[in-house]
Amino acid sequence: MSENTGNEAAESQAAADGNVRDRVFHPKILTTLSDYNLPTFGSDLMAGLTVAMVALPLAMAIAIASGAEPGAGLVTAIVAGLAISAFGGSRIQIGGPTGAFIVVVYDVIARHGYDGLLVATLMAGVILIVAGFLKAGRLIRHVPEPVINGFTIGIAVIIATSQISDFFGIDAGKLPADFIPKLAALWQAHGTWSAASTVIALLTLLLIVVFRKAAPKLPGLLVAVALTSAAVPLLGLDVDTIASRFGGIASALPTPSLPAVDLDTLHTLLPSAIIIAFLAGIESLLSALVADRMAGTAHRSNTELTAQGLANCISAVFGGLPATGAIARTATNIRAGAKTPVSGIAHSLFLLGFMMLAAPLAGMLALPALSAVLVLTAWNMAEPQHLRERFRGDRADIFLLVMTLLLTVLADLTIAIGAGVAVGLMLRLRRRKAPEPEWKVPER
């Protein structure tokens, strides 16, 4: 039996005898550092570097799609990612900005400005900390899986739609926030599409897929974005870059400060804060489950919620975005050989080093290339390989999934989650004699 497997077996025994996993706050790093050694550090360091190269373009792409400055995504990956690894209840989870937040973040910024987002993120952090101390970690698992699948697919549809203008180089100006009017505006401006932007986006998409198949250990996402972005100035292509649209990326973390808060602001932003907290809780525990299944570990759900709350409070203080456990980056971390939370801390420090030493290079990244990254992210979120299976299940579950999906896309994420959870609980009461279904671990 390996050293890590032995540690996890001991932890499982402790969970049975002393309720370690049900403690309010017991960071995993305290367990893993008790017998830490140099070979483990080497494995964590290389895994941290690998996942940092994946997180670098993705964090900026998520920030741009959310209506924020690209640097905000880097700041979030650095400060929130470090906090999630240092204080979290999962051995090898990676935290940072994720695609699940794009819809709600875009909406909050559009309605209340970036300062409003910071307040909502800070409030969400407090809600998550309270949820952790109330031992709500396992309660989130009672959210019906069709609701999770429905709003995840809905978010994927919205993300993909939001990338049409950059992917095809369409100059549509400021797009409406609502789905149908956005499609109408894009169609009206379809004559402005850019062949160069489209080629760069398609080539980036193709390279990412090829690298994942042919060289899975290579940071294919970063390499693909770098190659196609480098082609833009070399070939003299008229393609938007981060620098041409947003200016340069800061080479240091912003000075921490608390956003201005008053009672009216708190009342106005409370629904958004609840949604951010809900998404962070769901996504972080899903990601922790992925880590458990892949690495044979056992996460501490209450500690994880508390850590997510601390991370979101810290992110807001540094001017960052909402953060949570990132499923794809966590999987990358595990495949790269991560052993302990030190790999996540290393990932954040590598990103900080890039920000301090090579921020001007980020300005050269082509927006169609980053758009391709998000299109692929949306595809992975939707998990199309499981659609047939999901539509062969119980009719009530299919109805719940479709209802949540349509409300997410056509109405509002708050309405979608509220209605989905309410209807799901009613269906659960109707089938209360049946055993509760176990969550299926997503592959995205």
Overview of this protein structure:
It is a multi-pass membrane protein. The protein is built from 19 helices and 2 strands. With 444 residues, it is mostly helical. Residues 1-18 have low confidence and may be disordered. The longest helix is centred in the middle third of the chain and has 33 residues, at 263-295.
Strand order of the largest sheet: 1-2
- Give the low-confidence spans: 1-18
Oligomer: single chain
**Total DSSP helices:** 19
How many runs of DSSP E, i.e. beta strands? Answer: 2
First and last CA, distance: 29 Å
Q: Please summarize the sheet with the most strands.
A: 2 strands, antiparallel
Rg, nearest Å = 21 Å
Index terms:
mainly alpha; 19 helices
Characterize this entry briefly.
This protein is mainly α and 444 residues long.
How are the secondary structure elements laid out?
Blueprint: H1 3-18, H2 28-32, H3 38-65, H4 70-87, E1 95-96, H5 102-133, H6 145-162, H7 164-168, H8 179-188, H9 195-214, H10 220-234, H11 242-246, H12 263-295, H13 301-317, E2 324-325, H14 327-335, H15 342-362, H16 367-382, H17 387-390, H18 395-410, H19 413-430
Antiparallel strand pairs: 1-2
Helix pairs in contact: 3-4, 3-10, 3-14, 3-15, 3-16, 4-13, 4-15, 5-12, 5-13, 6-16, 6-18, 9-10, 9-16, 10-16, 12-13, 12-14, 18-19
Pfam family, one: Sulfate_transp
Keywords: Membrane, Transmembrane, Transmembrane helix
Domain SLC26A/SulP transporter: 41-404
